[in-house]
Amino acid sequence: MPEITSVILENEGLIYKIASYFPYQDKDDLYQAGCKGILLAYQNYDVNRGVKFTSYAYSYILGEMKNVVRENKSLKVGREINKLSNQIERAKAILEQILMHEPSPSEISEYLEIPESLVVEALNSKVSVQSIDSTFGDTNMMLHEIISSPSVDTDTLLFLKTELENLGEPERTIMIERYYEDMTQSEIAKGLGLSQVDVSRREKKVLSKIRSKLTLDNN
After folding, report:
1. d(CA 46, CA 63)
2. What is d(CA 97, CA 100) in angstroms, rounded to the nearest whole number?
3. Which of 1, 103, 133, 139 has its CA 20 to 30 A from that of 122?
4. Residue 124: CB partners within 8 Å, gap ≥ 6?
5. CATH hierarchy code of domain 1-76
6. d(Cα 71, Cα 73) in Å, to the nearest integer?
7. Looking at domain 79-126, which CATH architecture does it have?
């Protein structure tokens, strides 16, 4: 068996290809994560399974890069945003009693006398991405599990990779930033110059297409 350094060098193309999914991240950090993924894949790879090493290593590399992205994202959510989030939660509780409905960002910003953009940013920092908890086809697995789990069959991983690469813009950017960089719809909309509603509509359309194809393939 070749030394791990040789394996890494032989698969640098794959590492850089997956790293391209994260255009706003430090390339050196992604490369190191990719090397770690190669090492983990190499340690667990069984040639007798009849699966190409590159196909097997794909999910390991991607998983390690996603860990880096999550860590970097968490560092960006500073103390001031967390403090503001707590103030907003208290304001929401008070306004719900006064208004008898869940307050909008504009109502919260007026109550706290701060810009609405700060309210939205603080709320987004606490939002959990619900759409990645949707199951696909008959796999009974969630999207983030399908993308990152080394236990998922190779055909499904390659299918998802192909579907992503075949998307046009801005759909490809939306899906990469949502599921690889864990960005919110509002963050993506701001970067693309779209409305949050438009980003949501485009994302749902892509997910529906993928779900339909997976269902057909499993029947």
Report:
1. 19
2. 5
3. 133
4. 184, 186, 187
5. 1.10.1740
6. 5
7. Orthogonal Bundle (1.10)
Same fold, 1-76 and 79-126: no
Give the rounded percent of residues in the chain with a pLDDT score beyond 90.
Answer: 15
User: Rounded to an integer, what distance in angstroms lies between the CA atom of residue 13 and that of residue 10?
Assistant: 8
Q: Which is more confidently placed, 123 or 66?
A: 66
**Position with higher pLDDT, 142 vs 99:** 99
Kindly report the pTM of this predicted structure: 0.45
Q: What whole-number distance in Å separates Cα of residue 43 and Cα of residue 77?
A: 35
* Measured CA distances, 112 to 42, 95, 162, 163, 169 (Å): 54, 11, 47, 44, 38
Residue tagged 């991240």 (tokens): 25
**Token reading at 170:** 């801005």
Residue 203 has pLDDT above 80, yes or no: yes
CA–CA distance, 113 with 184 (Å, rounded to integer): 25
Q: Mean per-residue pLDDT for 187-202?
A: 89
